[in-house]
Every structure is written in C-alpha cells, then in structure tokens.
Specification:
Number of domains of chain A: 2
CATH architecture of the largest domain in chain A: 3-Layer(aba) Sandwich
Largest sheet of chain B: 5 strands, antiparallel
Structural class of chain A: alpha/beta
Number of domains of chain B: 1
CATH superfamily of the largest domain in chain A: Peptidyl-tRNA hydrolase
Oligomer: heterodimer
Radius of gyration of chain B: 14 Å
Bound molecules: zinc ion
Structural class of chain B: mainly beta
Shape of chain B: elongated
CATH topology of the largest domain in chain A: Rossmann fold
Distance between the termini of chain B: 36 Å
Largest sheet of chain A: 7 strands, mixed
Radius of gyration of chain A: 28 Å
Strand content of chain B: over 45%
Order of helices and strands of chain A: HHHHHHHEEEHEEHEHHHE
Number of helices of chain A: 12
Order of helices and strands of chain B: EEEEE
Helix content of chain B: under 10%
Strand order of the largest sheet of chain A: 1-2-3-7-4-6-5
Distance between the termini of chain A: 98 Å
Number of strands of chain A: 7
C-alpha cells in the first residue's frame, strides 16, 4: 500500500501526472467558462456571415447607383437619393381590429410603389418604362439586402451585449438560410440590369402566347388583358404588362373583370411559379385548386373574395423552382415545362368547362423581358 | 432601347453562385416555323420582332429566352 508521502513523491516526479492535472484543470475551465467560450465561437461565426451580408449590401447599393448613372441623364447625384430610399420604411396598419386590414395594407403598398416610381422617374427624366421598372426592381433588391443586414446586425449586437447564448445560437442556426436568400437577391441584380426574364416570369410567358397580336386593354395598374377564343370558349388572358419588370395587380384586374365588366366567368386558371421543396426538381409542374399568387396577400385576398362571392372555381398550375431560380435569369428547365403547362390548360378548359363558357387565364409573376 | 448600361461581361454570359450560364434567345418564324437560337442581346424580349427568317424572309419573333449551363469547349 502506497503511503501519502509516497504519492506526493510520485506526483512530483511523474510527467504523466502533470498532464493529468492539466487535463483536470481544463475540465474545470470548460465547466465554468464553457458557455463563454461557445458564445465567443458562435459570435465569431455570425460576425463572418455579417461581413458577407455587408459586402452584398454595399454591392447592391453600388449596382443601383451605377444603373442610374449609366441609364442616361440623372437630375442630381443619385447616390444621395438612393441612400434615402434604402432607409425608407413602410409602416404596416394596426392589426388589433383586423376587419378591413387587407384594404389598408393594399393602400399602403400602392402608395409606396407609386412613390418609388415617381421618385425614379424624377431621377431619370424621360427614361423608357423598361428602365424605370428595372431601376425600381434593383432599388427593391438593395433595400431588402439593407434590411436583412440591419436586422441580423441588430440581433448579433444585442446577443453580444447581453451575453445571450440562446439569442446568438438561434441567429447562427438561421444564418445559412439568410445567406442563401441574400445570395439569391444579389445574383438577381445582374438579371434585372440586363432585362432578362426571370424564373418567376413563367406565368407571363405562358399568358403571352395567347395574347400575341391581339388588342390589349388595361384592367388594373400595369396589368393588361386580351380576349381570344379557345375551342368554343371565350378566353380572357391577363398578365402584367411587359417587357417591363412589373408584377401588376391581378387581384384588382380579376375583380374588375367579374364585377365591373360583368363578365360571368365559369372558371379562373392561374399559372404561377412556386417555391420547390428541397429534393423536388426544377420545372416540375403541379396542379391544384385555389389562388396561385404570392406577394403580401392582397391580390390573393381579392381573388378569393370575388371568386367565392360569384362561385367561380379557381384552378392553379404551379411551376416549381428555387428562390434563386425564381429571381434570376430563366432556366431552360423551367421553360421546358411550358408544353406541359399549355397541355394542362387545354385539358382543364375542356374538362371543366363547356362550349360557350367564359374562362379567365392569369399568368402571374414578374413580366420582365416578356412582352405580349 | 437606346444606350444600355455597359455590362461588365457579355450580356449572354452570367454566373449564378458557382455555375456559369449562357443566355440564349430563340427566334421563331411564324410562317415556316424555323427556329434560330442565338446569344441574348440587351433589349431582347419575348414577343419582340427578330431578324428576317433565313429560309423564307418573314420577320421572326422572339419566343423564348432562357439560360443553359455553359459547357466548356475543351
Ligand atoms: Zn420562315
């Protein structure tokens, strides 16, 4: 049996024992300071992502300024005006009493869009509508990136300030998705600058095929409609006016067709791009029921309201794509879906309506680079 | 469209993330149906009138604009 004296002697001389003590000590350090160390690592991680967001934000701002400068005579230094835009806030209406809130939201977003367009027109007097619309889109991208950067920075600094491990870890967990979205936005700038159709434009591309060469009437802001005939049915085709980068107001357009123009529709068919789930193939076509339209929800609300009030069935045809593909240049995989979509439209019309019926086809999406 | 913004690279080339894409415009002749595929140029848009058809001389129409992954020549 080793005596106590024997043991201390052993500790003093054995190198292994020193290692043991170090190991024990580090164990102690990790128990006491473990979270601090983790906070440090997590914060470092976020700070790197934040730097990337800042680069993207600055790049989009520079692209916006360059676009204005390159687009001909600008009235004043566009940079100052653009910086003002990036800080522009939209105050959403109070939702304590939600009755009628959609109308209020619509009014606010319309006012904002109107304001942005008139400002762009002021900076670029006499510019063609396509350029004005592209400038609007680029400004929107820049202000989105500005907002994303600001919010992430807010939570990062708040987490560091309050030493909140939970807050920082939550932020770290969603960072990859945030970066993915920011990446899609910054890539979209190139497509918009060149006026190329985006993946989201598949709806307008489908609609334009039925509208080409026909007279057009404006049924809502930036939204045009043509009347044609398909196998004995009257076909009303609606899309945002191209080749400008507009999304139009299809909700108001469809409402006007039914309520103001008093056209007794028998069916509404909506074609739109839809976000695919991971693992789904780009260009997959899905069929369904209901208003296929994204955005803040005002158009969807109007379509649902008017179609249910007048008992018009709404059919949806969706073309799957990722967020990156939806806002960057149209991929071949997506246009390859056109034939299938046209066939589905034909089948729907033939199966769900009869000769003499009236059908409305709406191509939903951004119509940049897609005329009619 | 008049003066387009000077692109840093050719308008028919684009990079999305890690992949490179070439953008093409398809011009279709409404009379004989001949399709021509050429590189995208700024100002192209779907339904715009294109060049004269090489087969029958009719004015073609741009029917499609899309991007394909660039395949390296070598
Ligand atoms: Zn021809």
């Amino acid at each position: 049996m080793p005596t106590l004296a024997n043991m201390t002697l052993q500790l003093g001389t054995d190198f292994n024992s020193i290692l043991n003590i170090v190991w024990l000590l580090s164990f102690f350090v990790f128990i006491v300071y473990g979270q601090r160390i983790q906070i440090y690592i997590v914060a470092n991680d976020i700070s790197r992502a934040l730097n990337r967001l800042k680069l993207m934000k600055d790049k989009s701002r520079k692209e916006a300024v360059d676009y204005f400068v390159a687009s001909g005579k600008t009235t004043a230094d566009p940079a100052a005006k653009i910086d003002e835009f990036l800080e522009y806030v939209t105050i959403m209406p109070v939702d304590l009493d939600p009755n009628g809130i959609v109308g209020k939201i619509e009014h606010i977003t319309q006012t904002r869009d109107e304001r942005v367009r008139s400002e762009v027109k002021r900076i670029l007097p006499g510019a063609e509508p396509v350029k004005v619309s592209v400038a609007e889109n680029i400004l929107e991208i820049a202000s989105s990136l500005n907002m994303i950067h600001k919010i992430v920075r807010h939570y990062y600094l708040l987490g560091k300030k309050t030493n909140s491990y939970i807050l920082l870890v939550q932020l770290q967990m969603i960072m990859p998705q945030v970066l993915l979205e920011a990446d899609a936005l910054i890539n979209a700038v190139d497509t918009f600058k060149l006026g190329q159709p985006v993946g989201d434009g598949i709806g307008p591309i489908i609609a334009s095929k039925y509208m080409y060469g026909l007279p057009k009437q404006t049924v809502a802001k930036d939204t045009v409609m043509s009347v044609t005939e398909y196998k004995g049915r009257t076909l009303y085709v609606l899309k945002a006016e191209g080749p400008m980068g507009y999304v139009g107001e299809p909700g108001i357009g469809i409402q006007k067709v039914i309520e103001e123009m008093k056209i007794p529709l028998n069916a509404i068919i909506m074609v739109d791009a839809a976000l695919k789930l991971e693992g789904e193939k780009t260009g997959d076509v899905a069929e369904g029921i209901g208003a296929a339209i994204g955005g803040i929800g005002t158009d969807k609300f109007r379509i649902e309201q008017v179609s249910s009030a007048h008992k018009v069935p709404v059919y949806a045809i969706l073309v799957k794509q990722s967020i990156l593909e939806a806002i960057t240049v149209m991929r071949k995989d997506i246009t390859d879906a056109s034939d299938k979509v046209h066939k589905l439209i034909g089948d729907l019309i033939e199966e769900q309506t009869k000769e003499g019926d009236k059908v409305l086809l709406a191509g939903i999406g951004n119509s940049l680079g897609v005329g009619q | 469209m008049s003066t387009p913004p000077a692109p840093a690279q050719s308008p028919s080339q684009t990079t999305q993330g890690k992949s490179k894409f070439s953008v093409f415009t398809i011009e279709e002749c409404p009379a004989c149906g001949q399709k021509t595929k050429r590189a995208f140029q700024v100002g192209d848009y779907i339904t715009k009138d294109g060049a004269k058809c090489t087969k029958c001389g009719n004015t073609t129409r741009m029917t499609l604009i899309y991007a394909e992954p660039t395949v390296k020549a070598k």
